[in-house]
Every structure is written in C-alpha cells, then in structure tokens.
Amino acid sequence: MTAEKTMPSHDQVIAATRLWLQRAVIGLNLCPFAKGVHGKGLVRYVVSEAQDEEDLLGDLERELEVLRAAPPEEVDTTLLIHPMVLNAFADFVRFLDLVEVVLRTQRLQGVLQVASFHPDYVFADSEADDITNCTNRSPFPTLHLLREASLDRAVAAFPDAAAIYERNMQTLRELGHAGWRELGVSAPSGNRE
Questions:
Q1: Contacts of 149 (CB under 8 A, 6+ apart)
Q2: For residue 161, pLDDT beyond 80
Q3: Does residue 177 sit within a domain?
Q4: What residue numbers bound the domain in which 50 lies?
Q5: Which end of the chain, C or N, has fewer beta carbons within 10 A?
Q6: Does a structural domain hold residue 25?
Q7: Domain count, the chain
Q8: How crowded is residue 117: how many other Cβ atoms within 10 Å of its Cβ?
Q9: H or E element at residue 38
Q10: InterPro entries from the entry (predicted)?
C-alpha cells in the first residue's frame, strides 16, 4: 500500500517558492535582475489550482492579462506556480509549446515572455544529474511571466548580460550537489510525486 501524497497549501507553495527565490536565484545571483524587483515587492506569486493542462492554460491567459494591465511599479513580474499539474518534466516541456501559442494569439510577443522552472529541469544538452540544471530548478513547476521592457532595461543596465549563463554554470559547478541540497530550496517533503 502506498502512502497518499498530500498537496501543500497555497501558503506552503508560496513560502517554498520565496525561499528558493531568496536563497538560490538571488542568493547565488543566478538572476542579477531578481533582487531589485523582489526587494521592491514587485513579484506577484500566484498558485494555480489547475489539475489539467486546459485549466492551467486558462490561468496562464488570465495572469498574462493581469500582468499586462498592471502598472509595472505595482507588479513587474509574476510567478505562476502549478503544483498539481505538469509534474513530469516531459509534460512540462511539451506544454511550453502551448505557452508560445498563447503569447502569439494574445499578441504578447515583444510585450511579455515566459521563462520556465521545474523541480526536474534538464537542459537539452545535459544529463539529468548535471548540477548546472539547478539554475532552472524550482520547488514546484513554475511559469515566470516577465515584461519585455523591464527585461530590456535590466539587460541594458547590466554589463555583459550575455555572460550570465556561463557564470551561473560555473557557480553551480563550484557549489555542487551537496551545496545545492544545503540551500534547502526543494519542495516541502512529501509534497512531490
């Protein structure tokens, strides 16, 4: 008999995601742009209750519209966290094609973009156990909705933004798997299938 996994509460999902943002993304400086928007309280955390892709697409469409309509000085970016759907990384990757379709059909290309994070993230050119995959590993499957204008400003203000990817890979190699585990940024125990 298998013990049934319990789903975390919205508060637990947001707390785990904030901890990941603070300790990994900001703490390791994986995204030098995150510290400013986080510090100003401009990150919107949304937990989707979707249990299938169709409902998640609906949540994505709504959140894209909310972000587009919100003043950037109130909400600059959104983390759409969906703990109950797309837990298999292959399903998540396939869903990202639908995300691009939504951006095109809502005519948001060049206005908003979506970055992807997943607990089991694996870059196409790496092995599953490669520590560099952790640059895109979050406690729960997450779609990060960003404003293109904000990203353009951040990139313009950051010298050699193209080097961020390489620097992140080096940071993770130096940290290693044990160091990543010590950050404590995985999903709360017992909450992932």
A1: 72, 111
A2: no
A3: yes
A4: 10-150+157-183
A5: N
A6: yes
A7: 1
A8: 21
A9: helix 34-39
A10: DUF1415
Q: Is 189 inside any structural domain?
A: no
Q: How far apart are CA 151 and CA 54, in angstroms?
A: 29
Give per-residue pLDDT as tens, 23-77.
Answer: 999 999 999 889 999 999 999 999 999 999 999 999 999 999 999 999 999 999 9
Q: What is the predicted pLDDT for the residue at 156?
A: 79
162 alpha-carbon distance from chain centroid: 20
* pLDDT for position 7: 79
Paired residues of 98 in beta bridges? none
Nearest to 29, CA basis, from 139, 156, 145, 161: 161
151-161 per-residue burial string, b: 16 or more CB within 10 A, e: under 16: beebeeeeeee
Report whether 65 contacts 102 (CB < 8 A).
no
